[in-house]
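Minutes, methods subgroup
Present: GH (chair), OT, SY

1. OT presented the first of two proteins processed in the latest run. Sequence and structure tokens recorded below as shown on screen.
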Amino acid sequence: MLTYSEENYLKTIFHLSLGQKKGVSTNAIAAKIETKASSVTDMIKKLNEKQLIKYQKYQGVTLTAEGIMAAKMIVRKHRLWEVFLVEKLGFNWDEVHDVAEELEHIKSEKLINKLDAFLEYPTQDPHGDPIPNAKGEIKLVDKQLLSEIDINTKVVCVGVKDSSSEFLQYLDKHKISLGTVIEIVDIEPFDQSYTIGLHQHTITITKKIASNLYVKVISA
């Protein structure tokens, strides 16, 4: 049985390792969890003893197969609860992360599987992130960042890189959500700001905003 803290570390290592070919550094883990490096070292020893991670000096931390599966199940619970909160309880997508952080530690596998069935087996959470199924399988979505798309291209929003409440509230303010069609009208050479077509009008967004929106190309 894993403690709350152990689960949080596994989930953090899992997220930090995505797309990485080498291990995750203890400093990166400490920065993400906002704790001291010494605390990370202590936790690494515990997780290593449980055979959930492997640690090599100067090589960083990697999850074992058992550790990956455990992390995926935590992520699965978190994202299913987010779907439930938005679809069934009427929460906004900027409100659910912190609540799901608490609910993800519920141990009942039966409850989570019934929740999955009740929600009709969703494959994505309200932010467009994939939900692992009961076997740990993840259905990836073909996506790019808006900042990687050329002018005169029409795309649809399929996710967000930054899921902070501040960013999501910004998107709500401009009526941008999953499924919103966006057309790139112009990119300003001076500051790389974007003029985008949106709901029959245009707005200007910064490169930072464009670098945090995942999209799928509809037509070019």
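2. SY then presented the second protein from the same run.
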Amino acid sequence: MSTARAVDRAFGRGGLRVAPLSFGAAAIGNLYAEVADDEATDAVHTALAEGIDYFDTAPHYGLGLSERRLGTALGDRSDVVVSTKVGRVLRPGTGTVAQDSEGFAVAADVERVWDFSRDGVLRSIEESLRRLGRDHIDVVYVHDPDEHFAAAMDGAFPALDELRRQGVISSYGAGMNQSAMLTRFVRETDLDVVLVAGRYTVLDGGAAEDLLPACLERDVSVAAGGVFNSGISASAEPGSDATYDYLPASPAILDRARRLAALCREYGTTLPHAAVHFPLRHPAVRTVLVGMRSPGEVRTDLGLLRTPPPEELWAALEATS
């Protein structure tokens, strides 16, 4: 059995199963830097060959580029799980901005418009299906509704519930960088999956206080993203230029990351190794989503998954938190 599929796990209530390590496709939408078409395709094909069977994307990622590239690379593969997101609808650009301003190295020929209404969700999914070249989407997340709670509750979630009943999608949920609102969605809607980014990591275990217990109670599956907190935990020795949650790491965060990295070395492992495995120890977490942009990154991430860190490390890390 491949490394990725060593422990296949149920994901949601729609019969889906996913490997512990999944492919975050923001990077092949040119996140921070351009990726060539053939390199993006090779990254997806390498992931497939190594047993990765869950791919997460969004219209937001490269203004549709990630979805298009993922759809092309996957072709007619039906033995994989694909998720995308709603909440940002793409519309023709105004022509006043030459480059995307949200971290993706793409031309701003279209623009994002926040829209959590029923019509916005239906339009977004229709366009995602076309970009992905699929007639069904396994999972749809309501994407970053931090300032749009009421609109998501009144528009997006009822629309997704309807689409799940119709069989257009298998499961739905929400994807956010916070746990508090995700916990409200878990308790107040019938979603069956959530994607929490950066809030259940070796540096920030906050989701264990609210979200993860609620997910266990409500039979909601969790995908953990942002396990490197945007970079600081991706290096065996965090540098002074490390980022934490997409901003320069504060001296306090940098000091803590370096102390954890030193502790990992004492136990014969590395901070990135611990970062990938930490979320998977919780019973609510079914998979870890890691951004990948090249075959080399796919293989590196799979290498981190291959063997778990020493069990004694976890108690030591907890004692230093």
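Chair's summary of item 2: Residues 149-166 form the longest helix (18 residues).
Next meeting: continue with the remaining queue.
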